[in-house]
């Protein structure tokens, strides 16, 4: 809770409140607010913490622990390595309600095309949630490594069970060959809508 004082100040400013207005809502003096923000008073009773979180319009956990680490999207580039392998990157938990009809287990990562990169099915500023896998799970969009180049393809199985790959807007399919491998299943895709 060492950062509680600066967090109170940051949330107060974000809420557009001066110290006196916050003090009135919490039921303390503005001098007490100053002491809390400076860290001169480190112990704040539960009742005051609840009143602070209500006045600052934030969850109590946010007030006490700060903003949870939010994952930022990784840049998808058309060449290897895979973006989540370049640096230590923690996956995200994606609520199942956001991905009806999808099945996967394990890590999930947020991707967006890197500057100047173009991909079928994924435009600049679009956001995709991908689950790393080298196994075909179900028909849909996959991140595919083909001859050490990354691309996005719609992948399905033909009646014999062989994998077939299709580019966006194309009727022709490419059959699986030794230069191809699945790297991730796209489990959710959000399109950027210009305002």
Automatic annotation (TrEMBL):
Residues 8-63 form the HTH cro/C1-type domain. It comes from Halomonas binhaiensis. GO terms for molecular function: DNA binding. Gene3D superfamilies: lambda repressor-like DNA-binding domains. This is Helix-turn-helix domain-containing protein. The lineage of its organism: Bacteria, Pseudomonadati, Pseudomonadota, Gammaproteobacteria, Oceanospirillales. InterPro entries: Cro/C1-type_HTH (IPR001387), Lambda_DNA-bd_dom_sf (IPR010982).
């Amino acid at each position: 809770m060492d950062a509680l004082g600066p967090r109170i100040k940051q949330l107060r400013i974000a809420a557009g409140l001066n110290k006196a207005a916050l003090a009135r809502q919490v039921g303390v003096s503005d001098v007490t607010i100053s002491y809390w923000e400076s860290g001169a008073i480190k112990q704040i009773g539960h009742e005051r913490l609840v009143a602070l979180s209500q006045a600052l319009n934030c969850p109590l956990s946010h007030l006490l622990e700060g903003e949870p680490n939010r994952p930022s999207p990784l840049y998808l580039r058309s060449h290897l390595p895979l973006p989540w392998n370049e640096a230590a990157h923690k996956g995200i938990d994606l609520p199942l309600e956001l991905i009806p009809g999808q099945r996967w287990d394990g890590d999930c990562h947020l991707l967006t095309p890197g500057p100047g990169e173009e991909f079928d099915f994924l435009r600049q500023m679009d956001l995709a949630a991908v689950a790393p896998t080298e196994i075909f799970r179900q028909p849909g969009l996959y991140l595919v490594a083909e001859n050490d180049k990354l691309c996005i393809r719609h992948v399905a199985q033909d009646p014999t069970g062989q994998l077939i790959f299709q580019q966006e807007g194309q009727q022709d399919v490419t059959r699986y060959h030794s230069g191809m491998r699945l790297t991730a299943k796209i489990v959710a895709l959000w399109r950027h809508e210009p305002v």
